[in-house]
Amino acid sequence: MFLATVAICIVLLGNFAIAEVPSYIHICGRKDPQLNDCIIKSVEALRGNLRNGIPELDVPPVEPMKFKKIALSDTPNFRAIAQDVKLYGLSDFTVTSLKTDLNNKRIDLNVIFKDIKLNAEYDVSARIVVPIAGTGPIEIVADGVAAKVTLKFQLVNHKGKTYMYFPSITIKLTIKDYISHFVPREGENSPLANGINAALSNGRQEIIETITPNLEKVISEQILEYANKICKHFTYEELFPDRE
Asked: Signal peptide: which range, if any (predicted)?
């Protein structure tokens, strides 16, 4: 979803002067009667470029997506924080639907992923039979991941020119299930490892309910940052010339 949303912003940039358009951007005119389908195809074509980053548009590699920390569980009996997080699999997506509404200044899309993998340093404390705590690397692989995204934009004036600005984004994630593996410093077969991995397995629904809004927040922040970085390079007229 992150990759798809950034790709849409780049595709929209493809509507500026032809001589300036990189070869990897497929042009979609705003009067194209099949604009939404055109953008979806363009997004698919951009997948590899986004995976590796596009320096000329200030877009860093998005595989993996990195952020400092995220809460996996925060209950009296099970507290777990993932730090130095890396997300993999964001480039393996399918856009199932997309609607671009230039009049109301919004973009709506639905995206599904093959799977998403999270690698992080895990700091966990739990009360199973007796209190236990530990740190170590964790891997979580989520499947059945889908996202519903609404991206809104505004037109702002700067030095006599009009630019696009994205003030907000709404992301609703769905995660059906996951598998996880935690290896504490005490070792893979230690009582701590067995206890925490059992808690991760048995508390999957609770953990999904905790991590989902946290992921929505950190991903939204990164999408807005990169979308606005891209769009600051071009005026609105360059982005959306009045043609098919």
From this structure: 1-19
